[in-house]
């Protein structure tokens, strides 16, 4: 039986104004998936780690299994898979947990099949898993696959751009003990929006991408401004305003909701600032229990584990 394992980092979807377009990979957190090829039926063998009890054991509902199977079928392979998952990311936490499992599942299947896949092949297969949970978008899949900051130009056909980011910048994360389902959070957002507001959002997204590419921290402070999702989703996160203020008061370049939440992220100029921000953000949640993480921007996406 051929077995291979892969690790995919967690990610921040949207990165403020870049709704469904920008994604940022974070080092030090992620999911590990092992895939064994089999001539028997597919199965989910074991799930351990964070929120393991919430991960579906039914292969037809498990994103890692679906992505692994999609890769094999796309490659013309007839085998099925047995997957094992080690969760480092919460479910419905806003850190791309389903995306990381999907990407790692697809890549592990490729390794088990003796194939070195292209990023497009991984993304196409991972989308088969992610779409079951979060819909047809790549803003978490792309950074988990490529690392760093990514911009999704198109989903069909897949067209993703990797944007350089400063090596010194870090990310601070705080995740309160509040659960927000991605589909429910998306339902809060309007299908149609005022033209002037849309123009402003587009300008902030373009400016934020430029700020990362040029290492312009002052521009991040002006550009990381989400007028679309943050005002609507922040009401689902207790103490959001206080947490954001704590991050900015402690030197964050910018702060917003990671994906659909409840995780809140802050971009920091260095490790020391990121750690100060994460601790201040946690204190601002007051009576609500939370976990924190401070890590650099992940330079690599999915990798053998």
Layout of strands and helices, then pairs:
Blueprint: E1 3-13, E2 22-38, E3 43-49, H1 63-74, E4 80-87, H2 97-112, H3 119-133, H4 141-146, E5 149-154, E6 159-163, E7 170-176, H5 182-187, H6 195-214, H7 217-223, H8 230-233, H9 240-249, E8 254-257, E9 264-268, H10 271-284, E10 290-296, E11 303-304
Parallel strand pairs: 3-4
Antiparallel strand pairs: 1-2, 1-11, 2-4, 2-5, 5-6, 7-9, 7-10, 8-9
Structure explained in plain terms:
The structure is a single chain. The chain has 305 residues and is of the alpha+beta class. Helix content is 36%, strand content 26%. The protein has ten helices and eleven strands. The strands form two sheets. Strands 1, 2, 3, 4, 5, 6 and 11 form a seven-stranded mixed beta sheet that branches. The chain has a four-stranded antiparallel beta sheet with strand order 8-9-7-10. It is globular, with a radius of gyration of 18 Å.
């Amino acid at each position: 039986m051929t077995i291979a394992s892969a690790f995919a980092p967690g990610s921040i979807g949207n990165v403020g104004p870049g709704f469904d377009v920008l994604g940022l990979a974070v080092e030090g957190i992620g999911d590990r998936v092992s895939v064994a090829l089999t001539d028997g039926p597919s199965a989910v063998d074991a799930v351990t780690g964070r929120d393991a009890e919430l991960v579906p054991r039914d292969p037809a509902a498990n994103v890692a299994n679906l992505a692994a199977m999609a890769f094999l079928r796309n490659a013309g392979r007839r085998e099925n898979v047995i997957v094992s998952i080690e969760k480092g990311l919460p479910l419905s936490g806003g850190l791309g947990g389903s995306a990381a499992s999907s990407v790692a599942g697809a890549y592990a299947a490729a390794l088990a099949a003796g194939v070195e896949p292209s990023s497009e092949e991984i993304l196409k297969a991972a989308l088969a898993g992610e779409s079951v949970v979060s819909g047809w978008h790549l803003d978490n899949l792309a950074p988990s696959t490529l690392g760093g900051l990514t911009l999704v130009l198109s989903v069909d056909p897949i067209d993703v751009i990797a944007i350089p980011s400063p090596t010194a910048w870090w990310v601070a994360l705080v995740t309160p003990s509040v659960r927000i389902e991605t589909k429910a959070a998306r339902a809060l957002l309007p299908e149609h929006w005022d033209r002037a507001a849309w123009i402003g959002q587009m300008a902030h997204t373009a400016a934020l991408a430029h700020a990362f590419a040029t290492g312009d921290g002052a521009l991040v402070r002006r550009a990381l401004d989400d007028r679309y999702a943050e005002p609507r989703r922040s009401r689902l996160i207790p103490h959001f305003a206080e947490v954001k203020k704590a991050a900015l008061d402690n030197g964050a370049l910018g702060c917003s909701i990671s994906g659909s939440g409840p995780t809140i992220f802050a971009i920091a100029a260095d490790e020391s600032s990121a750690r100060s921000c994460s601790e201040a953000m946690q204190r601002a949640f007051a009576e609500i229990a939370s976990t924190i993480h401070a890590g650099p921007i992940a330079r690599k996406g999915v990798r053998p584990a």
